[in-house]
Hints:
homodimer, alpha/beta, eight-stranded mixed sheet, about 45% helix, about 15% strand
Amino acid sequence: MNISLIGAGRVATHLATALHAQNIQIQHVFSRNIDHAQHLAQQVDAIALENISQLTQAELLLIAVSDAQIAVVAKQLAGMNYTGLVAHTSGSTHLQVLQMENLRSGVFYPLQSFSFDQPIDWENTPFFLEAVQPADLEQLDQLANTLSKRIYHYDSEQRLSLHLAAVFASNFSNYCYDIAEQILQQHQVDQHLIFPLILQTAQKMQTNSAQQNQTGPARRHDQNIIDLHLDMLKLHPEWQDIYALLSHAIKHRHAKA
Amino acid sequence: MNISLIGAGRVATHLATALHAQNIQIQHVFSRNIDHAQHLAQQVDAIALENISQLTQAELLLIAVSDAQIAVVAKQLAGMNYTGLVAHTSGSTHLQVLQMENLRSGVFYPLQSFSFDQPIDWENTPFFLEAVQPADLEQLDQLANTLSKRIYHYDSEQRLSLHLAAVFASNFSNYCYDIAEQILQQHQVDQHLIFPLILQTAQKMQTNSAQQNQTGPARRHDQNIIDLHLDMLKLHPEWQDIYALLSHAIKHRHAKA
């Protein structure tokens, strides 16, 4: 199978280098930023393109650009009469965005949080595949299988709900860590002290539901501590709002014993 | 050193049995519930008291009761003219609560999540010690040293900020997991799918700050996705409010590139 790529950001880079390591041929890399395209192309023995119209037909064209750009790229491909299989890699973009342009449409979405400097545990990364044609779905299956054994065929609505859930479970929990770190910093308290607690809270998900694992002053309806904490946050109205809203929601979720 | 204890709950039980195992003498155990006091006293060769006024002077009196009860107990001790060193074991109670009653005041706080049925890894449990008199702090130091080598001298404000940070880092992140699980349930999507992401997000804290690790639509200022998600949450106004508030805060924290 040979593949071309549109995009040279985090997702494109991690996917391309992982596929390259599996001896999958990467043919072309196009990015609006030619420097980025060249930087990635060098890593995976591919050719960097300056113009999207230079793309020749690959067996699969992966679109790994920002969500907002997917529709733009799809329109450009339609204008070029691109006839190969085109799959975007987004958790939060409907298959329809490609279908609307009458492309041979698919989705190749790895559920992962990609940073430039962190290695990816591909084997444990779930892939969500979708395609209009059964043969195209099979082709995406084959490719995903080279990286992971955890392959799912979910429709766009399910995939979008998964992405929404991931925003809560990963992005928002990370932002809660961020506030915690800032609070400790401001009081000259060693930030490493909360790491075991963070890890333990995450690990508990393996055995019980988050609802069962919930602890803390809001869970206990301990209004004295909640009020003390809100007072401690009075110089940070934004954190105070977050504390109040989340505590209210937790109290609502866990009726008083 | 001989010690007496007020309280017979989870913290009191774990502390008393651990100290007893280190050949520290436990003299008296008082609890409002005499059955609980007797149950604990038996385990540590101590005498259970029916009335707090029966307490004789120990070298150290540990108060391991609920946060709200600490002030009540302090008032009772003051009324008895108790003159020994009195330390509470709470992360979220100021030293002043004891000082106000003119007690020889201290804090002996182990940062741990105590369950009745889980053994405690004392060696890796950080202890936070505080006392008005240097000699008292030294005495608390000696005692904590029998259980752990991770001893911190933080003042009440620092200790309270650690507890506040833990609410964000553990309780609130867990509630974000809870919302995520509910979203997946509603769309018949396998809930196990987000566990690797949750674990990885937590593990990343070991190498980078949460600020550096932040990803997601709000981090990218991707308003299309944010609006799509808010629309998907329209039947859950509480989750919608949380999504909007946290996304706004993340955008604010990470200025547009």
